[in-house]
Known about the structure:
Shape: rod-shaped
Distance between the termini: 53 Å
Strand order of the largest sheet: 1-2
CATH superfamily of the largest domain: Tetratricopeptide repeat domain
Amino acid sequence: MxxxxxxxxxxxSSPATLAxxxxxxxxxxxxxxxxxxxxxKAGADxxxxxxxxxxxLARAIAEYTAGQAKQDRPVFDFNLALTYKALGRTDxxxxxLQRFLDLADDTITAEARADAETKLxxxxxxxxxxxxxxEKRPAxxxxxxxxxxxxxxxxPPVATEPAPRSSxxxxxxxxxxxxxxxxxxxxxxxxxSVRWTRIGGSGLAGAGLVGAGVTGWLxxxxxxxxNQAADxxxxxxxxxxxxxxxxxxxRRRSAVLVGIGSGVLLASGAAILLLWSGDExxxxxVGWNLGITGNGLAVSGQF
Length: 303
């Protein structure tokens, strides 16, 4: 069980020091804060039996909670988060870390904020728990327009023009700004899955077509070598003819292997495209051009 030390006061700290540093001014809150730190340090001692450590950590939670009830300061949430984390109660630790960041004021340093955000991201890697807390968090109440004055029956009506509203203020009223520390959860939709599956199927089919072109070139080259070997005048030596025959046989064996592989790729790609065919248009077009030139096989395409 790995335990980080809580936000604490030095042994010589006095209530006045805590009041200056964390704005802890209530005497009972200070007492519970110091008692919670003492219990936490005892529970973090790995040399002690586990049952004793868990009992001390539970006592630390009780002290911090009692102190927070006396005076609600962010430092209590940070220490409660560490204590719950030490006990393996991740959900409560995430909740108090998030509350610490929401309520952090000028008493919390930038280093402490960054440390809390790092711990929060490590405990809630997917951001699911933070999203749940964001949904439960009550929306901030915005001041509404002043009430309309009661009409005076004796006074004539006065036409008023509505004040122009800027686009930024209108957007702010329509969509409340989420806290920056909340992580956005990206969800993969079926639309994206179908698109990438079709791309994969097209790629397999394209690779199969390339393999088919290579197979054709190997077969043609093997036939060319056979013709050269049969030309006794051009190659009167038997050893030369045998080399040509061996090269032609190697070409045919390679053509068989490449042909089988390209056939498997082509069939797999076609099956994927058929299985995932639907009303949605394919995200990419694949085209291949194969040709045999004097220098070998020429392959061109667009995907």
